[in-house]
């Protein structure tokens, strides 16, 4: 598909402006580690943003070259990434993150540390040319069984989440990278992943304001440059449409009641919570009409045909009178205004001193260690049994996690095995471990009965086992040594491995 703006039906100057504005509000992805020709052409025609995912990133040097390639065509382009740190990382998807995620920072509860971690993360993004980060998650993880938020939240207490959300926004934006606080109006009290279906939050308005909205109010006060909408149904606000498509949520609540005037970005429009009911073209039009300014797309649909289809759907909706021309122009203007802010903010932040150890420092401080009198530090290469649930889409299956690599660095010869639901877990672990000490690594054991059963049987057979919980530590501590890391980032694994072998957590 190669038609240019002048080849669009009705290709007058006004029509060209309309098509440029339609392109300006899209945040598409693409495949590859260099920009394809079609993407560069659409940038020249007015595309306002580009979304980067793990598939686009191999190294900081390659990423910097890629973003320079994009800016050679459109210097003011917004280049966005989903870099939360912790479990959700795009910069370090192949190695695991150098920064712990939100739950670890909330467990420490030092807002200065959160601000410093976010500032260093922002500095690294800025150095690679990324100027919009779809972070932080401001969701209050009030449902411990939440399948998609979990360790991505600062915690389950609204005021704690609020103060760390604000600190994160301040730190990230001090590096010249725009924060995008998500997932408005709050995805924490859900038992469904919106990647797969439409979650529903059945709370009254008082609860919504005191719990879900508290962190977003803090983010707005801190000056967050963007807010990401959630594909969730909140009947107290709108009984019919999910937040991303709801004028009551985006305009009535966020704009009018909370007074927010920055950029509103949708969560991935091709996620099934929207796509299965409305379709991506219709969902895009409804989102902009509801008050969204930018449409995130490309996690799954990452091709020129999608960009053209969404552009044309927006243009057609304006011509049909379904989408007011002024609403589209307002959305495009907000995209351009944020791009202008990032240019100035990046210049102001240039030269900030790096703090390469801040992530490990935070991970060590986040550990919660429970020992029994029987535990002796492991001094010879152990057997690591990783009880591995299915990774949610936000995290991605490509990102490594656990403690085996870090233990092998400290105790060469460490052996590891991966065990999933349906395996003959305990028997396989015991047979594979033989005479080695065992380190059992789990993730959200409270959400997975198969994992809890296997861990219990293993501890009955080998009570000297060390247990490392790398998810939400909702289940009671167990094992001769229990370490709650509050996340599965690489630095969390390193901090846990140090304790397993007898080093102090704060060494």
Q: What is the residue-mean pLDDT, rounded to a whole number?
A: 92
The count of helical stretches stands at 17
Principal-axis shape equals globular
| Termini separation | 58 Å
Structural write-up:
- The protein is of the alpha/beta class.
- The protein has 17 helices and 14 strands.
- The strands form three sheets. The chain has a six-stranded parallel beta sheet with strand order 2-3-4-5-6-7. Strands 9-14-13-12-10-11 form a six-stranded mixed beta sheet, sandwiched between helices.
- Helix 7 links the parallel strand 5 (178-184) and strand 6 (226-229).
- The protein is globular.
- 56% of the residues are buried.
Write the layout of secondary structure elements.
Elements: H1 13-24, E1 26-27, H2 37-45, E2 49-52, H3 60-73, E3 78-81, H4 102-108, H5 111-127, E4 132-133, H6 158-174, E5 178-184, H7 205-222, E6 226-229, H8 247-257, E7 263-266, H9 272-275, H10 280-290, E8 295-296, H11 304-319, H12 325-349, H13 358-366, E9 368-371, E10 383-387, H14 404-410, E11 415-419, H15 425-433, E12 438-442, H16 449-461, E13 466-469, E14 481-484, H17 490-500
Parallel strand pairs: 1-8, 2-3, 3-4, 4-5, 5-6, 6-7, 10-11, 10-12, 12-13, 13-14
Antiparallel strand pairs: 9-14
Helix pairs in contact: 1-11, 1-12, 4-13, 5-6, 6-7, 10-11, 13-17, 14-17, 15-16
């Amino acid at each position: 598909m190669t038609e240019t703006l002048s080849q669009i039906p009705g290709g007058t100057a006004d029509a060209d402006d309309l098509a440029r504005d339609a392109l300006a509000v899209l945040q598409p992805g693409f495949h590859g580690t260099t920009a394809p020709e079609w993407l560069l052409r659409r940038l020249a025609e007015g595309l306002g943003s580009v979304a980067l995912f793990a598939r686009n990133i191999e190294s900081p040097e390659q990423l910097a070259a890629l973003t320079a390639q994009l800016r050679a065509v459109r210097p003011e382009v917004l280049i966005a990434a989903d870099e939360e740190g912790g479990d959700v990382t795009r910069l370090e998807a192949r190695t695991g993150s150098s920064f712990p995620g939100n739950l670890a920072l909330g467990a420490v509860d030092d807002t200065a540390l959160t601000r410093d971690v976010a500032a260093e993360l922002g500095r690294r993004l800025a150095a690679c040319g990324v100027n919009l980060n779809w972070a932080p998650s401001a969701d209050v993880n009030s449902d411990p069984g939440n399948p998609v938020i979990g360790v991505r939240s600062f915690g389950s207490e609204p005021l704690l989440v609020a103060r760390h959300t604000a600190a994160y926004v301040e730190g990230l934006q001090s590096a010249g990278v725009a924060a995008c606080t998500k997932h408005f109006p709050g995805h924490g009290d859900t038992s469904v992943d919106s990647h797969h279906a439409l979650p529903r939050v059945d709370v009254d308005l008082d609860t919504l304001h005191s719990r879900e909205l508290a962190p977003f109010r803090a983010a707005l006060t801190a000056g967050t440059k963007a807010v990401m909408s959630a594909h969730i149904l909140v009947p107290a606000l709108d009984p019919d449409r999910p937040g991303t498509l709801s004028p009551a949520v985006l305009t009535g609540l966020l704009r009018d009641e909370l007074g927010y005037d920055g950029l509103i970005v949708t969560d991935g429009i091709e996620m099934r919570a929207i796509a299965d009911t409305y379709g991506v073209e219709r969902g895009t039009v409804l989102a902009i009409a509801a008050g969204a300014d930018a449409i995130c797309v490309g996690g799954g649909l990452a091709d020129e045909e999608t960009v053209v289809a969404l552009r044309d759907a927006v243009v057609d909706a304006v011509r049909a009178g379904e989408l007011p021309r002024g609403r589209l122009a307002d959305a495009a203007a907000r995209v351009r205004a944020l791009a202008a802010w990032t240019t100035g903010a990046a210049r102001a932040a240039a030269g900030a001193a790096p703090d390469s150890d801040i992530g490990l420092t935070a991970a060590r401080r986040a550990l919660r260690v429970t020992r029994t009198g029987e535990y002796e530090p492991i001094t010879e290469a152990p057997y690591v049994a990783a009880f591995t649930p299915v990774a949610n889409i936000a995290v991605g299956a490509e990102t490594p996690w656990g403690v085996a690599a870090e233990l092998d660095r400290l105790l060469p010869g460490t052996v590891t095995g991966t065990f999933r639901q349906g395996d003959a877990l305990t028997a396989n672990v015991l047979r594979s471990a033989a005479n080695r000490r065992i380190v059992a690594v789990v993730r959200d054991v409270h959400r997975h009965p198969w994992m809890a059963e296997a861990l219990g049987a293993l501890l009955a057979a080998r009570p000297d086992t060390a247990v490392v919980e790398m998810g939400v530590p909702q289940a009671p501590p167990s094992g001769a040594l229990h370490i709650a890391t509050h996340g599965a980032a690489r630095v969390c694994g390193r901090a846990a491995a140090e304790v397993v072998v007898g080093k102090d957590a704060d060494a």
